[in-house]
């Protein structure tokens, strides 16, 4: 299945502790159906001191399930669903993502 949410996209959280917050996708894990979003779902972790890093309690992002994320529409910055369409003819044909809310192409 084609990826509806990709690295670098601006998304909003639909449910959970961080509902309504938005951020940029840092990475996507398709096999797990989860994504890391900058500044969302922050957790504290105890980190052991190493030669390169200081020890102590570190805040970092935990993954969020893809079903709890919605892409922000590039036109009006509101949550939208994602569709697909083909652009071009013949060998130059490309599959691009489209915002269902406004019909604007997201990439391509």
Write the layout of secondary structure elements.
Blueprint: E1 10-13, E2 22-29, E3 34-37, E4 42-47, E5 56-61, E6 64-65, E7 69-72, E8 79-80, E9 82-87, E10 94-99
Antiparallel strand pairs: 1-2, 1-7, 2-3, 3-6, 4-5, 7-8, 9-10
Notes on the structure:
It is elongated, with a radius of gyration of 17 Å. It has 108 residues and is mainly β. 0% of the residues lie in helices and 44% in strands. The mean pLDDT is 93.
In short:
The protein is mainly beta.
CATH class categorisation: Mainly Beta
Give the overall pLDDT as a whole number: 93
Question: Helical content, roughly?
Answer: under 10%
Number of helices: 0
Query: Given the C-alpha coordinates, what overall shape results?
Result: elongated
Task: State Rg.
Answer: 17 Å
Which CATH architecture would you pick? Roll
N-to-C span? 19 Å
Main pleated-sheet profile = 6 strands, antiparallel
Tell me the fraction of residues in β-strands, as a range: 35-45%
């Amino acid at each position: 299945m084609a990826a509806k949410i990709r690295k670098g996209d601006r998304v909003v959280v639909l449910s959970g502790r961080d509902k309504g917050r938005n951020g940029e996708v840092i990475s996507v894990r398709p096999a797990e159906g989860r994504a890391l979003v900058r500044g969302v779902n922050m957790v504290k972790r105890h980190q052991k001191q190493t030669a390169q890093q200081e020890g102590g309690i570190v805040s970092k992002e935990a993954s969020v399930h893809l079903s709890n994320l919605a892409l922000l529409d590039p036109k009006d910055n509101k949550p939208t669903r994602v569709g697909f369409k083909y652009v071009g003819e013949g060998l130059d044909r490309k599959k691009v993502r489209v915002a269902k809310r406004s019909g604007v192409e997201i990439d391509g």
